[in-house]
Amino acid sequence: MDLLTQGLLGGVLASSVASGKESRGAAAIGFAAALLADADVFIGAADDPLLNLEFHRHFTHALIFIPVGALIAALLLWPLLRNRLGFKRIYWYALLGYATSGLLDACTSYGTHLLWPFSDTRIAWSVIAIVDPVFSLVLVIALILGIKYCKPRPARAGLALAGAYLLLGLWQHQNALQAAIELAQQRGHEPQRMIVKPTLANLVLWRSVYQSDDLFYVDAIRVGPGPDRVYPGDTVRQFKLERDRPELDMESVLAGDIARFSKLADGYVVPDPGRASVLTDIRYSMLPTGITPMWGIDLGVGSASRHAKFEVYRDRPDNARDLFLAMLLGRDLPQ
Q1: Strand 309-312's sheet: what is its strand order?
Q2: Whether 160 and 193 share a structural domain
Q3: Rounded CA gap, 273 and 276, in Å?
Q4: Of 56, 123, 197, 258, which is least surrounded by CB within 10 A?
Q5: pLDDT confidence tier of residue 276, bands split at 50, 70 and 90
Q6: What domain range is 303 assigned to?
Q7: 275 and 142, same structural domain?
Q8: In terms of domains, do 198 and 281 share one?
Q9: Residue 196 and residue 206: Cα distance in Å, rounded?
Q10: Which residues contact 176 (CB under 8 A, 6 or more apart)?
Q11: What's the pLDDT band for 226 if we cut at 50, 70, 90?
Q12: Are strands 295-298 and 193-198 parallel, antiparallel or unpaired?
């Protein structure tokens, strides 16, 4: 989730259990502690671009790390707040705030190592977008009212509404998944795997990606309110190292980077149609029906003994906004 919303949820949860005189301090502590988990963005190496991706939403977001992360947050905040709150109270509010980070990120589609070190699986429930203004606004209002009146009731109401919104996302996810299954069946496909994920800032328009044989099929699925509708998208072949780069030494650094990127992308790896040397994560694109990448690794930057270069792309059609709005509203696509 975006950093602001992470902090808001942590602040609201902490203030929901605070007494009147501590509500403002609790909100500040919860807000700050919720942000601390994302300090993993500073883990990296200049000569290994994928290292940062591997550790993003990793051990700092694990359930088992919550007490440790909360302790770090409390130790950092104690010098600033020791004249107002005891260390135990600071730690309690930090614990609540920090606990929200991994769980909220797991509600998105990227994946979070919640069960590290017992499992290396990235958990992604895909019930809310990375940025969702409705969800964030509920938390903003709850936090402001709680701070203004120094009472826990607004925070508790905000948590209830935020929880209901996540449940709505879960229900919409199931509707979109069922529509994607039916679409694959209509095409005569038996998908080996399938994902559906909400598009930016809404729970109405979903991106569907499923694999049948060596092909990925990408579609946009709109599920209420209003008309349900499917917008057929593009198709692209899955990248396979042995077939597509047979000349590459499987023990080389570059081959290792391909394996690491494939693990991060959960195997949803395809060659970029517009860049012959680039591999991308087909789960993400600027348009819900498109295969134009948002990021990828460039295999052509050097020899096989050097690391692949990670690139972020923002290519999109000139009418991308009009296309997205048309799909979101259930209309015919503009020509």
Answers
A1: 269-271, 278-281, 295-298, 309-312
A2: no
A3: 7
A4: 123
A5: confident
A6: 187-328
A7: no
A8: yes
A9: 6
A10: 196, 206, 208, 221, 223
A11: confident
A12: unpaired
The amino acid occupying position 104 is L
Question: CA–CA distance from 101 to each of 59, 63, 85, 311 (Å)?
Answer: 12, 10, 23, 26
The number of distinct structural domains making up the chain is 2
Is the distance from CB of 74 to CB of 28 less than 8 angstroms? no
What pLDDT, on the 0 to 100 scale, is given for residue 303? 76
**Same domain as 195, residue 125:** no
> For all residues of the chain together, what is the average pLDDT?
95
Q: What is the percentage of the chain residues whose pLDDT exceeds 70?
A: 100
- In this structure, the number of other CB atoms found within 10 A of the CB of residue 6 comes to 23
pTM of the model: 0.93
233 and 141 fall within a common domain: no
Residues 146 and 240 in one domain: no
Confidence at residue 302, expressed as pLDDT on a 0 to 100 scale: 67
Nearest-angstrom CA–CA distance, 51 and 288: 28
Residue 176 lies in a domain: no
Asked if residues 173 and 126 have their Cβ atoms less than 8 Å apart, the reply is: yes
